[in-house]
Amino acid sequence: MATPRLKRGRVYRTEDFSRFDKNPTRLASKLVREGKLRRLRKGLYHAPRRSTFGEVPPSEDELLTAYFRGRPYLRTGPSAWNTLGLGSTAVEVVPLVYNTTRTGEVELGGRRFEFRRVRFPRKPDLEYFVVDLLENPRRAGVGVETVHRALTSALAAGRFDSKRLLDRANEYGTLATQELVREAVPEEGPARV
After folding, report:
1. 102 contacts: CB under 8 Å, gap ≥ 6
2. What is the pLDDT of residues 63-72, one digit of tens each?
3. What are the domain boundaries of the chain?
C-alpha cells in the first residue's frame, strides 16, 4: 500500500485514493486515524492546513468542487444579488448553489448549502444575476416592484445591457420574469421580444 502525498487544504473523495490501495476506504480511514485527513462527510475528506490561529477549514470552492466531482456549479444568492444595486440587502444564512446533479440542503464540512438543480450559464454575467434576482425575490428579501423600479432606472442609466438582459430573461426566466424585464427595458432600447 503506497501512501499518497496529500496537498494541505485540498478536499478529497474516497475514490481519489483508489490508485494507492485496492481498498480506498480503508486507506482513507487510516489517514484519518493518523491525523493526515479530516472526515467531512461520508466519502469526503479534507487534508488540514494549519495557520498561526489553528487549523484552517477547507475553502468553499474546494468543498463544492470535490462534492460535485468537478461538474459545473454556480454560487449565487444574496452575496451576488446585493451587488447589483437593485434594492436587495438580504443577509445570506445558507448559500445557494446551482448545479447539474442535486436539489436539497446538504451539510459539507460543518457548513450548510442549499443546492438547486437548474440550468445556468457556465460564465454568468450581471444580466444573468438580475434575472436570477427576479426569480428569487423572497429569498433576496425585496419586493418584485422595488426591483422592477430600480431595474428600470438602472437600464435608463445604462448600467445593464438591455439586449443581453432580454436574452438572459428569455433563456433562464419564467414568463413572469420575461414580462418584467420587457417592461423595464426603455422604449428606445432594443426591439421587444
Report:
1. 115, 117
2. 999 999 999 9
3. 11-58, 70-184
